[in-house]
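Deviation from plan, reported transparently: cobalamin complex.
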Amino acid sequence: MSSIDSITNLRDTIIKGNRKEAPNLARQLLDDGMDAYSIVTDGCSKAMTRVGELYQEGEYFVPEILMSAKAFEAVMEILKPHLQTGEKRTTGTIIIGVCEGDIHSIGKNIVSTMLQAAGFKIIDLGKDVPVNAFIEAAKENDADIIAISALMTNSMLGMKDVINAAKSNGINAKIIVGGGPVSAEYAKQIGADGFGDDAKEAVDVALKLMEV
Ligand code: B12
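Because the crystal trials were delayed, the predicted structure below was used instead.
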């Protein structure tokens, strides 16, 4: 099977929510020499984006989404150690989390893994994170960057609260934002230092902010 067929196969398996088979296919792709980063971007991310479309089209409901999410997570467990190998550069400390009231964590987890693979020290606060928790963690860890994810139009309003609280607490960390409804325009409007449309852009923007 060519690597294009294999990655398509992995995508389909995640979309179908087959959590037993998906990690085997990921392992096979690694054995065939595909790099873990490409498996995440071409396999996992695209599969979950398709799952999102199926949900919007009314084909999938919450149970199907959760099965795909489980298959996706099982694949990430296989890939994680391979994303973290290679030359390790300590580029800075990043606090990452999903806005309060929002439990969508798949995209945040991909971003978190990719930032870690790029050499950042990651403090992952998880999902449904109150404003204060971002601020406290940034203070305690002398963070360079706070990365905030949101998947809902109402929860993304909380990003501005984190930015305001960071300012009033004298926190110098740069703030980057992303997630489904978040745009570059919105990021600018709320005074964020950076925005990324996907995990690759998240890494690019974080590395760029560390240069300044
Ligand atoms: C999976 C999913 C769920 C799962 C979440 C499982 C989990 N563990 O995360 C479950 C089933 C639990 C769920 C629940 C709900 N969901 Co939902 N869900 C989705 C779905 C289908 C896919 C999201 C996803 O994982 N995408 C794949 C990942 C890879 O993409 P991503 O998150 O966008 O992340 C990428 C980029 O955005 C970027 N990125 C992400 N974060 C960050 C951060 C930074 C700093 C940067 C730089 C970049 C970045 O990089 C990521 C990787 O490339 C979307 C539909 C969609 N098309 O998005 C709806 C969706 C987000 N859900 C929605 C809703 C309404 C809900 C519920 C309220 C449903 C309900 N009635 O109960 C609840 C929410 C409960 C809550 N309080 O949060 C709506 C939101 C509508 C809105 N505009 O507000 C959507 C858009 C569906 C819809 N069209 O109605 N959901």
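The chain has nine helices and five strands. We consider this an acceptable substitute for the interim report.
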